[in-house]
Amino acid sequence: MEIENIVANTVLLKAREGGGGKRNGRSKKWKEMLKLPHISQCEELRRTIERDYTSLCEKQPIGWLLFRQYCDTRPELKRCIEFMDAVAMYQLAPDEKRRDCGLNLLDTYFNNGSAAHLPDVPQEVVAGCRERLEQSPCKELFNDCTKVVRDYLSGAPFSSYHESMYFSRFLQWKWLERQPVTKNTFRHYRVLGKGGFGEVCACQVRATGKMYACKKLEKKRVKKRKGEAMALNEKRILEKVNSSFVVSLAYAYETKDALCLVLTIMNGGDLKFHIYNMGNSGFDEQRAIFYAAEICCGLEDLHRERIVYRHFKNS
């Protein structure tokens, strides 16, 4: 049994390191697996897909990337995207540097003599930002400005994006994304943990070599414990949430015996392992504060989607 564990651990470590080859864990047929369809195959998708800016350009990474690429072809739109990036950097700036960062942002995008000037934002909105910056450079300082820019981008620019080759490429990716997912999409490795409805194992996407955690809910156990609604609810919640502090649902599929949720893999052990098995028991205050802050950020993102997490344990 010990030898089997050693072998399983070795295979998993090799997979995490990319398999030691040039393909970084990808299948020999990875190019064929990721081959985009001819655009003519996407016409039905073009007619039926929801034309919603929030859904296509804010919640979907590939959609946001392709919309950005489209905006890069038009200087007036590129300035808007650069402004949104600058606001994101301002929000991440340390408290002691946020004021200077905010002043630089105002001078760059709201100074009439600047090459990157954004004329569509009303002067009274800009003046309000300057006044609040002097009082308290909070993270929400540029919310009114970003709303104006976002409303502009989601209007005529978003409509013209639909007629561009970038939107056609987005449709090709969506077509590929909608292809059936089965257990053969992945390589499966050792069990990482067990729970009330099944187990979690490591897995690797054959087409990309990316590692995930596969949560397998055994159908018999789910049915016996009347957990069908709970399993479906978990899937729907994970689909809805997009947060750096909550694991993401990458794929979902079923086998004859199990419902499978393929999630972000969190390497490095769980909290209990770090508390009791890494050096002296417990954490120093700063480390405990850091972990508590991460948990609060995750809960805040859930609450923003009107989701209450009721299975929180301190063990």
Automatic annotation (TrEMBL):
Q: Which GO terms describe its biological process?
A: regulation of signal transduction; signal transduction
Q: Where is the RGS domain?
A: 59-171
Reported EC number(s) for this entry are 2.7.11.-
Protein kinase domain span? 186-315
Listed GO CC annotations: cytoplasm
Q: Which GO terms describe its molecular function?
A: ATP binding; G protein-coupled receptor kinase activity
* Range of residues in the leader sequence: none
Q: Which residues bind ATP per the record?
A: K224
Q: Which UniProt keywords apply?
A: ATP-binding, Kinase, Nucleotide-binding, Receptor, Serine/threonine-protein kinase, Transferase
Q: Which InterPro entries match?
A: GPCR_kinase, Kinase-like_dom_sf, Prot_kinase_dom, Protein_kinase_ATP_BS, RGS, RGS_sf, RGS_subdomain_2
Task: Locate the transmembrane regions by residue number.
Answer: none
What PANTHER family does this protein's entry cite?
Answer: G PROTEIN-COUPLED RECEPTOR KINASE 4 (PTHR24355:SF14), G PROTEIN-COUPLED RECEPTOR KINASE/RIBOSOMAL PROTEIN S6 KINASE (PTHR24355)
Family assignment from sequence similarity: Belongs to the protein kinase superfamily. AGC Ser/Thr protein kinase family. GPRK subfamily.
- Kindly provide the name given to this protein in its UniProt entry: G protein-coupled receptor kinase
Give the organism, scientific name.
Notothenia coriiceps
